[in-house]
Amino acid sequence: MRIWRHATTGLLLASALALSACNSNEVSQEALEASSAEEIFTLGEAQLASGNAADAAFSFSEVERLFPYSQWSKRAVMMSAFSYHEAGLYEESRAAAQRYIDFYPADEDAAYAQYLLALSYYDQIVDVGRDQGNTFRALQELRTVIERYPDSDYAKSAELKFDLALNHLAGKEMEIGRYYLKRGHYSAAINRFRSVVEDYQTTAQTPEALHRLVEAYLSLGLTREAETAGAVLGYNYEGSVWYQDSYALLTRNGLRPQDSSDGWLSSIYRQVVRGEWK
Hints:
One of its GO terms (biological process) is Gram-negative-bacterium-type cell outer membrane assembly. Its main location: membrane. Part of the outer membrane protein assembly complex, which is involved in assembly and insertion of beta-barrel proteins into the outer membrane. This protein is mostly helical. It folds into three domains: 8-87, Serine Threonine Protein Phosphatase 5, Tetratricopeptide repeat, CATH 1.25.40; 108-175, Methane Monooxygenase Hydroxylase, Chain G, domain 1 (Up-down Bundle), CATH 1.20.58; 184-274, no CATH class. It is built from 14 helices and no strands. It has helices at 10-20, 25-33, 37-49, 53-66, 71-86, 90-103, 110-122, 133-148, 155-182, 186-199, 206-219, 223-237, 241-252, 264-274. The chain is elongated, with a radius of gyration of 27 Å.
């Protein structure tokens, strides 16, 4: 985010200190409305610097409300979005960031507003055992940063966070798949592991997903599918512990990793290993 600099006079600093001495929004409202946009903006900066992000967000929002057409309003929208995020008030941060994007779509800081909007979801991603709604939303907004602002300072960071969020979703699928596998619900487990292999194949969860497919298919007596899963795993992750485990499991059953089936895994094998896309 670009850092705005402006001359802060002794009068402005004194005004900010006087305003910050107020104890509540009701008390300070009168003082705020008697102050200039620059004075309130300076107050917000002082509050933010002292760690009072929620108070700073309120001050910046007041600049926007009281002086909507001033030169300070545009800056205040962005600073309120940032301050709300710092305070952990993610919904309010999103709203302010979205306003900036809506009002100033061509501005150079629109990329940061979009990135901040994505962060408001990303920073709320919870462990894989809970609902992943915020993860899906974070992926959508991060993708917007990457595609709409590829040359911005935030594109690479967005790409990294996108990959981490995607891995998080794959981890959710793996958790459910393991649950089904452990309880002998092999078909349900296979559906989850297949989702990882097909939809999240670039994530770190893929090697284990292929190994678990070997386990699940063997448990169902589907030896050809198990061999093919082992072959895909061996081609892509030969040095992994998951391939070692799958290889041992297959050979113990008189099998070996090879393309033996004619199902969805065989299609992946032909595409990845043989380069046959039809």
